Structure formats: structure tokens, C-alpha cells
Amino acid sequence: MKKFLLSFLFPTLLFASEKDSLSIDYKHKFAQMLDDCDACGCSATGGSMGFASLLNTNFVGLRYIYQRYSSTDGLYANSPWYTEQFNSVQVWGRIPIFKNTQVSVLLPYHSNSRETQTGSNTISGVGDLTAIGLYRVYQTMSDSTFLAHTIQLGAGVKAPTGKYDATNNGSINPGFQLGTGSWDYLFLAEHIARRKKFGLQTMLNYVVKTENDKHYRFGNQFSYSGTLFWLHERNDFSVSPQLGVAGEVSESNRQYGQRVSETSGSVVFGKLGLETGLGKWSAGAQFLLPISQNLTGGRVDAKYRFGLNLNYSL
């Protein structure tokens, strides 16, 4: 089993609130809307949770991600807060194609629920399929190097295999979807630096969103993660505790080409993780707790995320 050790990133996030650019008609139409960014729900396909296993260079497996939020319409100072829960079971993998070339594939199944004034609302179904081609552009060749480096760059596409329901843009926030309903384009960079049992990894991911056939466009999204971890291997057994940060920055959504106010935002998570491996099998867990956030003008509050995965090494 190959050693994958990580690189660390301390990004500075800038979030600027934007003036409402909608016309009076659009303002009336969206006055009762809980405008949510893509940081809730649709980003559960990967993003800051990453696209790779730390213990397996090439693998196939299952991953489960849970996200919990509180949200309010913000119309009044005492407006009630409601709980939102996003569950995603994902078939994922990183498959070798040619020398130095891999394809990362992820297909989720979502089950999302949200409390409302009239009761709970639940949607479930297949999400958007993501495929990313990666090329290893640099790898340290000598084991005697003080720091060994691996750099991979990739690009891919997210297909609209998940259902997008325009009616959810009314009384329910627009992030409460199974998919964006659009073809989106992803760009990925991974850097791994290692020194004996210690290492650092940086992952940067930028998603360019396009307008769907309902004339709605989710804002482009930048995700990142940086993790420090220690890897111990003995015979067929390996264990790797992890500590790091992860986060997302989302631009404003647009309806009919017009910017929808208070739909941009940013969130930074602290991250704890653990992966263990035995032979060709490995299992992992991540827990993310927000340390800084400004989502949709303060109307969405991220509580926590956690993920579990079980992989088989190819």
C-alpha cells in the first residue's frame, strides 16, 4: 500500500456582501425565499470533503457524508430557525488509466430533509455524476530527498443526473436540491509533501457553474482542504490520524441572469480524521466543525459535517 502524506494550506477568505441587483418584480418574487448558497446540499458531492483516500492510490469504495444546518428566513428579529439535514451515500473511486493518469469518479445518492412551518419536507434520489481526469505532473524520484513531493492537476465535469426542482426556489432554499440541473466544470489541484512518517496535503477545487434549463445558475464555488497527518505501517496494517482545515467560498446565485442577493458566502471548518487499512481494504472517518462562517447574510448556520468511507485498493 503506497504512502500518501499530506500538505497544509492556510488560505485567507474574503467575503463581501452584495447589493441586491434584482428588479422590483424579482424582489417581490424572492421576498419569501430562503436564499441559500451551494455550500448546503449540492456541494455534498465532494468539495471540501475531498476526492481521494489517504491510504489508497487507486481504489473503489463507498462514502457516506452527513451535513447539518440551521436556517431562517430572516424576515424578523425573532424569526424561527429550522433544522436541515443532508445525507449522501456515494459510490466513488480513483481508477488508473495510463501511466501518471487517473480518473476520479463519484456518483451520490442524496436524502435531504428540512423542517418548515407546516412540517418536515424530504427529497431523495440520485445526485449529479462527477468525473475528473488527473495527471501527475511531478513526483520526487529519489527516496533520499529531504522532502518528497507529488503534484497532480485535473479537470472534469459534473453531469446533471440529479433532479433539479424549480419549485424549491420558493418556500425552500435553492440549495435544497438533488442536483444543480446544469453541466458544471471542475478544476482540481493536489500537492503532497512528505517526510518519513509525516506529511502534508493541499487540495484546491474550483467549480464553474452554468445556467440550467430553468434559468437558474448556482454560484461558482472554490473548495480547499489542508491536512497534516502521520502514517504508521506494519506488515499489512496501517493507521493514519489527521488534523487540518477545510472550507468553501461560494459566489452569488443568478436567476434569469440577475444576481440573487444574499446567496454568496464562505465557511471554514476544522477537521479531524482517521484512516486504517488492512490488506487491500481501508476505512476512514472525518469530522468537520465550523470555526468561521458567513453564509447567506447570516441566515444559514452550518453545524457540523462527518464522513465515513470503506475502500478496496486496486
Give a nutshell description of this structure.
By secondary structure, this protein is an all-beta fold. The chain has one helix at residues 24-30, and strands spanning 59-71, 82-98, 101-116, 119-126, 129-139, 148-159, 184-195, 198-208, 216-217, 221-230, 232-234, 237-250, 254-255, 258-259, 265-278, 281-295, 300-313.
Account of the protein in words:
- This protein is an all-beta fold.
- The chain has a single domain, classed as Beta Barrel (Lipocalin).
- The protein is 2% helix and 56% strand.
- It is built from one helix and 17 strands.
- Strands 1-2-3-5-6-7-8-10-12-15-16-17 form a twelve-stranded antiparallel barrel.
- The longest helix has 7 residues.
- It starts with 23 loop residues before the first helix and ends with a strand.
- The N terminus is likely disordered.
Termini separation: 10 Å
> Percent of residues in beta strands?
over 45%
- Just give the CATH class: Mainly Beta
The helix count comes to: 1
Strand order of the largest sheet: 1-2-3-5-6-7-8-10-12-15-16-17
The count of β-strands is 17
H/E element order: HEEEEEEEEEEEEEEEEE
CA-atom Rg in angstroms? 20 Å
What low-confidence regions span 5 or more consecutive residues with pLDDT below 50?
1-45
Mean pLDDT, rounded to whole units? Answer: 83
User: How is the CATH topology named?
Assistant: Lipocalin
What is the overall shape?
globular
Give the name of the CATH architecture.
Answer: Beta Barrel
Helix content: under 10%
CATH homologous superfamily grouping: Autotransporter beta-domain
Major sheet, described briefly? 12 strands, antiparallel, barrel
How many domains would you count in the coordinates?
1
Secondary structure class reads: mainly beta
